[in-house]
Amino acid sequence: MHFCWGDNSFGQLGVKAARRGKAGQVRCQPGASLGSRDLLQAACGERHSLLLLSDGTVWSCGSNDCGQLGRKNTRNCEWPAPIQALKTQEVVLVSCGKEHSLAVCKTGRVFSWGSGSEGQLGIKEFKKQNFIPKEILDLSSVKIIQVSCGLYHSIALAQDGKVFSWGKNHYGQLGLKENVSLQTRPQWVKSLNGIPMAQVAAGGDHSFALSLSGTPYGWGRNNVGQLALSGKNAPEQIHKPCSIDELKSLHVTYISCGDEHTAVLTQDGKVFTFGSNNSGQLGRRQVSKKRGPQTVDSAHVFSQIACGSHHTLAYAYTTGQVVSFGCGSQSHLNSLLQPGSLEQNFSISNLISLSDYMLKVLPWDSPHQEALSIFLLLPECPLMHKPENWESLVVPFAKAVCEINDQSSEVLEKCWESLEESSFNSLIQMLKRSICLQMDCQPGRVKNHCNSKALLGMLKKLHRVSEISIIGESYPECGGVRKEFFHCVFKEMIQPEYEMFVYSENSSLMWFPTNPKFNKKRYFLFGVLYGLSIASFNVANLPFPLALYKKLLDQKPSLEDLQELSPELDVDLIPNGSSILVDKTNKEDFVSRCINYIFNTSVKKIYKEFQTGFYKVCTKEILNLFHPEELKVVTTGNPDYDWKVFEENSKYFKGYDKSHPTIVMFWEAFHRLSLEKKKDFLLFLTGSDRLQAQDIQNRGINFIHPESAREDELPIVHTCFHNLYLPPYSTMERVEEVLQIAINNNRGFAL
Q1: pLDDT score for 531
Q2: Are residues 192 and 92 in the same domain?
Q3: How far apart are CA 19 and CA 474, in angstroms?
Q4: Cα angle, residue 628 at apex, residues 622 and 632 outer, rounded to 5°
Q5: Smallest Cα–Cα separation from 726: which of 740, 736, 734, 716?
Q6: Which residues does the entry assign to the active site, renumbered to this chain (predicted)?
Q7: Long-range contacts, 695-701 (Cβ 8 Å, 24+)
Q8: How crowded is residue 353: how many other Cβ atoms within 10 Å of its Cβ?
Q9: Are residues 133 and 184 both part of a single domain?
């Protein structure tokens, strides 16, 4: 059931004459019966109304002077009747101007009819009367999802986020160029390009658009402050959409426009109004000189608003009441209406589908920071974090981020820098989770490597945001400082004297102690450090047995692992075990219990802390791609050094070549060094005494001849790039001397 009230002089309320009051006034009463169909939406013009029913048909009533009812051979119609020309269409939205009408179909097609004297129908002509709805062909190439009619102009919002306008432009209400007074064809409002819009609203001679992030943009007439632009220098009209600063902090969720006033609904259920108050349509009890937005003084929490020409309605969902204020000369007002049969049956008319709509039109080429804010908002949506949506939502999102231009990328990265830690981490976890799910595709399903490329590409951008710079360093941190840090920290922590780990007397391998000196938190932090080392592409000389990497990959240690560690046991594996001899009958049980005790039972608590810390940084699903042997090599580096290949991979710059006397002497002196001395020089050169698995086959030294260097100067190294600035020494003795000095000073960055 629906209700109506107000002026019914032309039958625009759709109730019979017997129900009218004086001068055509009607008090609140039920509207015409619609049979078994529900009323989805009602739209009112100055003297006509449209009713959209649940079956997609449109009915009309009221004045038909200009054809605004969509029917021929009738002047006025006081009883709703269907518009036959739209019978084959499934209409989802209607809107009324003063004397014209618009309808949006489910397919996105738009039909218009009524007065076109100002071009407001968008059909390329200024025809006063148009009785039959016509499709606006200029909009046929886009899918329209929303329309709004002003007095003599119209606005439409397309699925791809573009806003179109047409009709009268005397006050700039179309948002186009100032020299355009009338427009008979829909024109793209280019000033809003790239800004994702949630709603458009047209007033008498002004217009609004609301972005998805809640920023209102207004344009058109502002003679009484209907754009919320106030102050001494406030313009009376603007031709280009501009963000309304006074509304930004209100968290606006919906906008409705009257002839000369505007109402906005906020996230917390408040209503703010601004513009003309000559009929009380702003809902203010006292006359105020302030022209800007002011809240409607009410204890209600509102969920829906609507503006007529000179009045305003607001629905309070907590009480079920409709509050109205403004022009009451024709019974627009029935203050605090609460008809017993009014139900809280309000539904959302437009739902945004992330996969079908939003992600396909993300503003990858827009310079607007407002437009780019959608890249910050979407990761906050819970749907983006559901595992089943990784391919349909997260991948298209990552692709859009990777496709934005350099200027937009720079703006977005600055926004990422300002994110709270929790939001930034949530964004990273969303991408990491998607990568893991990509690798875990069902058997028989082809993996799309373009998906991985997009996800990794976005992670690379986020990694760039989190990179640090060292004060006083002319180059960005490229790994040298990190290598030095991990080398120094790990070297101290694994020293036998530190007593954090124990070493087997029969091997050089270390393991977790059965009676730890430190609390378990220390092992959690060690796991975090180890994970960070791997995540930083660093290798660390941590002499753990292969059993550790098996446990990290949820594999059971074996007898070979027990032999590798060669521990000595002095505990009973079973009650009174020291008095039981091991023989053929129980040896398997004995070995099994030994393995379980050494690798599991005796170190259960501190190992669990280590593993928790390790996987706080590393992603287990990714590491599961490795075999234990591979994971060990990746994390601890290549122990096999082919120094001849290392020499062959070296490069020479600024006057040096491999036949230069200084270079020849350098390699001769280097190859005479012991293995440990060579590794110490590697530490001087790279910040680590180990290289990654394949680095020894691909890396060498970049020899650079200093521009002005003397023989008494020492070599300088840039560990990040393996650059060695080697002065041109003339004797072998001097080369051997500086090589030893470098080895002795292979820590820090002071040399």
Answers
A1: 93
A2: no
A3: 85
A4: 90
A5: 716
A6: 720
A7: 695/637, 695/638, 696/638, 696/640, 696/641, 696/642, 696/645, 696/646, 697/642, 697/645, 697/649, 698/649, 699/646, 699/649, 700/646, 700/647, 700/648, 700/649, 700/650, 700/651, 701/646, 701/650, 701/651
A8: 10
A9: no
What angle in degrees, to the nearest 10, is found between the helix axes of 604-617 and 520-535? 30
- Residue range 465-486: mean pLDDT, rounded: 68
pLDDT attached to residue 473: 58
Residues β-bridged to residue 144: 158
CA distances from 275 to 4, 44, 99, 149, 603 (A): 26, 21, 23, 18, 74
Same-domain pairing of 616 and 498:
yes
pLDDT in tens, 218-232: 999 999 999 999 888
Shared domain for 604 and 651, answered yes or no, is no
Selection from 357, 353, 461, 469 nearest residue 415 by Cα: 461
What are the backbone dihedrals phi and psi of residue 52, each rounded to the nearest 5 degrees, phi first? -100, 120
424 with 382: CB under 8 angstroms? no
Q: How far apart are CA 284 and CA 8, in angstroms?
A: 27
Buried b or exposed e, range 724-738, using 16+ CB within 10 angstroms: bbbbebeeeebbbeb
3-state secondary structure 123-168: CCCCCCCCCCCEECHHHCCCCEEEEEECCCEEEEEECCCCEEEEEE
Rounded distance, CA 719 to CA 364, Å?
38
CA distance 220 to 202: 10
Per the structure, the count of domains in the chain is 5
Residue 358 lies in a domain: no
Residue 116, in any domain of the structure: yes
Interatomic CA distance for residues 155 and 179, integer angstroms: 19
Give the CATH number, domain containing residue 656.
Answer: 3.30.2410.10
Sign of the torsion angle spanned by Cα atoms 71, 73, 75, 81 = negative
| Closest C-alpha to 242, from 222, 259, 256 | 222
CA distance 619 to 471: 31
- Copy the structure tokens of residue 638: 């290549």
What is the extent of the structural domain holding 460? 366-471
CATH of the domain at 254: 2.130.10.30
- pLDDT, tens only, 547-582: 999 999 999 999 888 888 876 655 555 666 566 676
| CA separation for the pair 726, 711 (Å, rounded) | 10
Query: Are 388 and 528 found together in one domain?
Result: no
Active site amino acids: 720
Assess whether 524 and 564 both reside in one domain.
yes
Average the pLDDT over each of 23-37, 66-80, 117-131, 322-336 and give the range with the smallest value: 322-336
Residue 236 lies in a domain: yes
Query: In terms of Cα–Cα distance, which of 408, 506, 491 is closest to 690?
Result: 491
Spatial neighbors of 529 by CB under 8 A, at least 6 apart, are: 486, 489, 490, 613
Two tokens at 349?
């008319």
Continuous segment of H or E residues that includes residue 492: helix 480-493
Retrieve residue 325's tokens: 């204020």
576 and 675 belong to one structural domain:
no
CB 454 within 8 A of CB 438: no
Closest CA relative to residue 535, chosen from 607, 463, 476: 463
Query: Are 486 and 631 found together in one domain?
Result: yes
pLDDT band at 289 (very low <50, low <70, confident <90, very high): low
Alpha-carbon distance of 341 to 357, in angstroms, equals 37
How far is the C-alpha of 393 from the C-alpha of 109, rounded, in Å?
27
Amino acid identity for residue 379 in this structure: P
The pLDDT mean for the chain works out to 85
With a CB cutoff of 8 Å and minimum separation 6, the contacts of 261 are 203, 224, 226, 273, 274, 275, 276, 277, 281, 282, 307, 310, 312
